[in-house]
Amino acid sequence: MLTEPKIIERASQPCVTINLDVSQPEISQVGPPLPDEVAKWCKAQGIELAAAPFFDYCAFLPDGRMTMRAGFPVKTPAKSEGRFVAGELPGGRYASLTHTGPYHELHDANMTLDDWVRAQGLDLAGRMTDAKTLVGATRLEIYHKDPGEDPSGHPVTEVAFRLK
């Protein structure tokens, strides 16, 4: 089930992530353990988590790969160490919808939001560095509820794209 897309404002927020380049089929294998790894590292550093875990697809590369950040917003800025990267979720206007359903349907939810943004004549954040490379995007999947935490029994995930 999808909510109707809408435009929202988000404040910028410090975060800690693990960043990697992946292809679409690899996401379900490599992505899910990463937020737990970030949470454990943050706890060991005394860094408080501020909100639900997220994946941020921030660059789309010509070979069908994408740069993905997986992690958590944190209450105070942190310092990078090893594979743990301190950064920021940018503030601004976002197109957003909420998906309540299995994770394997998230690609379709992302495409629904992308179609809606284009139909509204809105521009997504990011810039093309050549004909096939988009950088500086913020395309979030925010994992608000795990399977079983919602009365539907399904996970609840917000899909949010930063707008120009």
Secondary-structure-derived class: alpha+beta
Strand content: 35-45%
Give start-end ranges of low-pLDDT stretches. none
The major pleated sheet works out as: 9 strands, antiparallel
Summed up, the helix count is 3
CA distance, first residue to last residue = 27 Å
Helicity level: 10-25%
Q: What's the SSE pattern?
A: EEHHEEEEHEEE
Number of strands: 9
Radius of gyration, in Å, reads: 15 Å
Q: What's the average pLDDT?
A: 95
User: What is the overall silhouette?
Assistant: globular
Sum this structure up briefly:
The chain has helices spanning 27-30, 33-45, 106-119, and strands at 6-10, 13-23, 54-60, 65-73, 85-89, 92-100, 127-130, 133-145, 156-162.
List the helices and strands and how they pair.
Blueprint (H helix, E strand, L loop, with lengths): L5 E5 L2 E11 L3 H4 L2 H13 L8 E7 L4 E9 L11 E5 L2 E9 L5 H14 L7 E4 L2 E13 L10 E7 L2
Antiparallel strand pairs: 1-6, 2-4, 2-5, 3-4, 3-8, 6-9, 7-8, 8-9
